[in-house]
Amino acid sequence: MTTTPSSLIEQAAVACAGARKGVALTGAGISVESGIPPFRGKGGLWEKIDPMKYAHVAAFESNPAEVWEVLFIGMSDVLGKASPNAAHKGLRQLEDSGVLQTVITQNVDGLHQQAGSSDVIEFHGTHAFLRCSACSRRVDAKAVPLDHLPPKCRCGGVLRPDVVLFGEMIDPNLLQRSQLLSAGCDVMLVIGTSGTVEPAASLPLIAKHSGAFIIEINPEPTPLTDRISDVTLLGPAGEIMDEMVDRVKKLKV
Ligand code: OAD
Predict the structure, then answer these.
(1) Whose CA is nearest to atom 33 of ligand 1?
(2) Is the pTM of this model over 0.85?
(3) Is the C or the N end of the chain the one with fewer CB within 10 Å?
(4) Phi, psi at 218, each rounded to 5°
């Protein structure tokens, strides 16, 4: 059971039940209950691996085999075993209830799509596809053998997961669409993100300044908690979402 006061969950549920243009911004924390570790904090990936050494585009360009060995192979293994949890499923249910229109995720695990969310913006790309760093051809990651690293494209270029590395830009079309949706939403659910990586971290600010009600779900307070969030539900996303979505459904009958 969560320790979040029931009155706060009710307040969030009432806001959701009245929403028609809800947007969720999710981060690594939403997939922790699916067995995928986050990046920051206790047990986070960046505690074990220096992101500037292995997750920066310059590192990949200078030694792609090492980045594959240290970062990408381990991530592929973990992501391949994960399935959606109650929080991913809860967002799908909020879409079915007419509350939520889009999920903007910083995650590359594909779990929102697996849970059935129909409009998912993959802000930082996806591990499901590899992209050639020379010719930009995209291929299904499952179709590429990883016995020799780095894997190569048929053009001879080096393949890499189709994700955004440090030092790279967010796809401008995705960024613009995310900003427009944030400016137009009535409720924003901010789930499992430390709110520290730009430009994703600014999306809740855009939503707030445009009049949206901000619901944050996270076991720990973040830089958004006191400044931006209207309600913060402290606890694991799966547990909290289970309870909140149940209440939303009751309020909508
Ligand atoms: P972080 O690892 O920075 O933050 C994860 C957040 O999830 C923290 O605030 C945790 O408190 C919270 N958390 C942990 N367990 C949780 C649970 N069970 N339920 C809900 N929340 C939980 O992850 P992001 O904010 O997603 O970028 O990080 C943003 C970006 O930084 C990532 O997309 C990645 C990383 O470097 C790139 O690789 C470009």
Answers:
(1) 106
(2) yes
(3) C
(4) -170, 140
